[in-house]
Amino acid sequence: QSQVVESGGGLVQPGGSLRLSCAASGFTLASYAVGWFRQAPGKEREAVLCISGRDGMVFSADSVEGRFTISRDNAKNTVYLQMDSLKPEDTAVYYCAAGLGCINPRYYVDSDAPHYNYWGQGTQVTVSS
Fold first, then answer.
1. What is the mean pLDDT of residues 95-99?
2. What is d(CA 56, CA 67) in angstroms, rounded to the nearest whole number?
3. Please, are residues 125 and 10 in contact by the beta-carbon 8 Å criterion?
4. What distance in Å separates the CA atoms of residue 68 and residue 61, rounded to the nearest whole number?
5. Which residues on neighbouring strands pair with residue 14, listed in sequence order?
6. Nearest to residue 36, comparing CAs of 79, 96, 77, 93?
7. Whole-number Cα distances in Å, 49 to 26, 62, 105, 106
8. What is the pLDDT of residues 35-89, one digit of tens each?
9. Cβ atoms < 10 Å from Cβ of 115
């Protein structure tokens, strides 16, 4: 069965860091674009970052520019989301998804979700003192 699974969420203080992992099984993640998304309570899911499959180009939402980075470890079939300088407003369930290409997070709306073929179940990130 082909799937992606997120891990690494938790509780962190404002200004702290977390690294989320998106591990794929059943397919080669390096051949796919991978996006990270988040959904806060009462809000629509939004796109955060996306890394393309072909050339590794990265697209970022303005809200995380300079704080969050995305990277691949092809040997581990995994994509990471490094989150630094976390703020309480970063609190959300974080999802990863794999698809044939990135939708720029600046223009993503959740009705675009079917563009991505594989979605994980999400991992909770809570930023609070």
1. 97
2. 19
3. yes
4. 10
5. none
6. 96
7. 23, 10, 6, 9
8. 999 999 999 999 999 999 988 999 999 999 999 999 999 999 999 999 999 999 9
9. 15
